[in-house]
Fold this sequence. Notes:
This protein is α/β, with parallel strands linked by helices and 230 residues long. The protein is built from nine helices and eight strands. Bound molecules: pyridoxal-5'-phosphate.
Amino acid sequence: MLRENLYSVEKNIANICNSCNRTRDSITLIAVSKTKPLSDIEELVDIGINEFGENKVQELVDKYETISKPVHWHLIGHLQTNKVKYIVDKVYLIHSVDSLKLANEIQKEAVKKNVNVNILIEVNIANEESKFGVLKDEVIPLLENISVLSNVKVKGLMTVAPFVENEEDNRVHFRNLKQLSLDIISKNIDNINMSILSMGMTNDYRIAIEEGATMIRVGTGIFGSRSYDV
Ligand SMILES: *Cc1c(COP(=O)(O)O)cnc(C)c1O
């Protein structure tokens, strides 16, 4: 089933790329493996997937320590400062940095472990009450503060778009995130790179790709639905 699901996602991505004149290699597919067993992950590794997303630190660390194959782990869920120390040397990219306090903690732990940590700024682009992420107007001031942290490497922006019935409704948010990244690039802030736009999930990755996503995070579309009570 995983193989068939993956092929159908890949086929969709190829079609979307064709229709909007993008190349497949301009997009990284992250398989969101939260709640799913290691056996599923290993099956995907065997058919060429190398990027996995988890939303909980403990689950990421457990899988990191158990898996026998080298893969890239992406932390896509909210990160508490007291958990930073467990992951700075294990994670390929942290998608969910949303405060200077958190960035400072990452810097502190990164120095201790003598690593650089790649991060994205999570933006609450639709201004939703109940969402993590920095509001649009707060992103540039935050980046100016983060830019002085020697071991924290900003690579771009991430958003979790609203849950909508019609994926078209999220187009405006993806477009706004892309525009924000262009505004940031034009500011030329030292040590700040904007090559990654992490946006689009199972229900709306088509629109996200059309609007410039360079990373899409697909869980259900690859693994099937999740059950949280196992
Ligand atoms: C769970 C999750 C996803 C994947 O969601 P699907 O709808 O299953 O594709 C993507 N991004 C984040 C931040 C998530 O928590």
